[in-house]
């Protein structure tokens, strides 16, 4: 039996007062900040145990990403920068919900089941976003880490992907990069400058990009990084946190769901703009055309642009590597059709949550994964990286082959392979547009999105909805899927699904159809079906239009 008396005494300073039942969801725990003190302490403890178990550095990130400012949350980062192993999510849920007197029992159970040797050293790195509650909550997580005798390093204010990067650096003997925020800026900017070296004729207009920082950590970190980019990208930063509220009427989630520009940004026709979310792990692009119509380039368009670029380079390099794209049920039907039918790329559908997409993408030489909401990255297998490196050094290869291999090498250095990263994705998109001499309008024209609508429905308990087939069909409550099927039949090119959110207390509804009016109507009718059959609360859903 491990000696957990000291840990127990420290836990009494962070009691489970509210008795709220929480679930380790899509991206860790998320709820009102005031309900999270005991959860943070216990996640600090779990991170220490995970570090002992894996004999590696583990990360604790305090953030609620796209949620409103009064929420907060925590996610654990596994050794290679990936999300916490799903088997441990169950431990996290048990620990977070344990009564005071059960805490030691559950810790003991984890130690025994996982055969953790408590004398082994542990090291946990901690980061936080800019929410007013984050500093105190991260200190509580550190208390939890210390309570089990683990060492830690507090990286303070960092984006979520920066912390994932730092964890990976620690566990690869700094082969992945230097384990610091400066190391991150150096690695990414070097790759970006190498890529854009081949585009000497870009005018300042081409280099100009407007960024909505969602009043969050991404804005702060982009300002720090700007100098490293040596004016090869000219950034105008809006919603930088000096005036507005985090994620309020701005940020990637707002822009994607509302399908309109964020507040606080001045846009002229044709100007390229992008929005980060609250912890800078997502990005979406957009512009106004000359008729003042708003055009959104979401995760699907980003995946298509990156995949096109990679496939062209592989052809030039004459490298035979399998490229696949992983999407979720939210992927626009047009994007999937374009990727499969025009680009002849293998496309897979995973459940919502980066952890699901990441695992699927690991199965290919090059796995491009993006959620439609702008969260995604590209994974290169070890073998693919080796082949690209060998080609760079191959003296018998042609100039064109070597140049393509170098571009691939810089692409894999620029992309944050640990997790979706707004800054890294943005830099890669900017480099690709520059190299291809492409405008945002030309990128947008690769395919035309089917009109779509996303809405939220409040229900008493969202767990009554259970889904299958990568969340594309509902298996409970009874009658819901049949209702959706019969509604979908009434519209052309239509599709709809519902799923309980893993980050907010709502049910999400997605619908697409031949026209925006029909997508709006279908989403409305499906949300009424959810309201009636899944225990809707409050007012009946109304039609949502842009
Ligand atoms: C998190 C996850 C994403 C997911 C999003 C919404 O994003 O990391 O994979 O798409 O939540 O999830 P849900 O629909 O279950 O609420 P973020 O950017 O908030 O961390």
The percentage helix is 40-55%
Number of discrete helical segments: 19
Coarse structural class = alpha/beta
Radius of gyration of CA atoms, rounded to a whole number: 23 Å
Q: Order of strands side by side in the largest beta sheet?
A: 1-3-2-4-5
CATH A-level architecture of the largest domain: 3-Layer(aba) Sandwich
End-to-end gap: 60 Å
Largest sheet geometry:
5 strands, mixed
Low-confidence stretches: none
Mean of residue pLDDT values: 96
- What overall form do the CA principal axes indicate? globular
Unique ligands: 1,6-di-O-phosphono-alpha-D-glucopyranose
The total domain count is 4
Protein name: Phosphoacetylglucosamine mutase
Active site: 65 (phosphoserine intermediate)
Cofactor: Mg(2+)
EC number: 5.4.2.3
What does this protein structure show overall?
With 546 residues, the chain is of the alpha/beta class. It folds into four domains: 5-157, 3-Layer(aba) Sandwich (Alpha-D-Glucose-1,6-Bisphosphate, Chain A, domain 3), CATH 3.40.120.10; 183-296, Alpha-D-Glucose-1,6-Bisphosphate, Chain A, domain 3 (3-Layer(aba) Sandwich), CATH 3.40.120; 299-444, 3-Layer(aba) Sandwich (Alpha-D-Glucose-1,6-Bisphosphate, Chain A, domain 3), CATH 3.40.120.10; 452-533, TATA-Binding Protein. Helix content is 41%, strand content 18%. It has helices at 5-11, 37-54, 86-97, 103-113, 134-147, 160-171, 181-196, 204-207, 217-225, 252-258, 299-317, 333-342, 354-361, 382-393, 399-414, 422-436, 440-444, 480-488, 516-533, and strands at residues 29-32, 57-62, 71-77, 123-128, 151-157, 208-212, 234-238, 273-276, 283-288, 294-297, 323-327, 346-349, 366-370, 376-380, 452-457, 466-468, 473-476, 495-500, 507-512. The strands form five sheets. It has a five-stranded mixed β-sheet, sandwiched between helices. The chain has a five-stranded mixed β-sheet with strand order 7-6-8-9-10, with helices on both faces. Strands 12-11-13-14 form a four-stranded mixed β-sheet, sandwiched between helices. Strand 4, helix 5 and strand 5 (151-157) form a beta-alpha-beta unit. It is globular, with a radius of gyration of 23 Å.
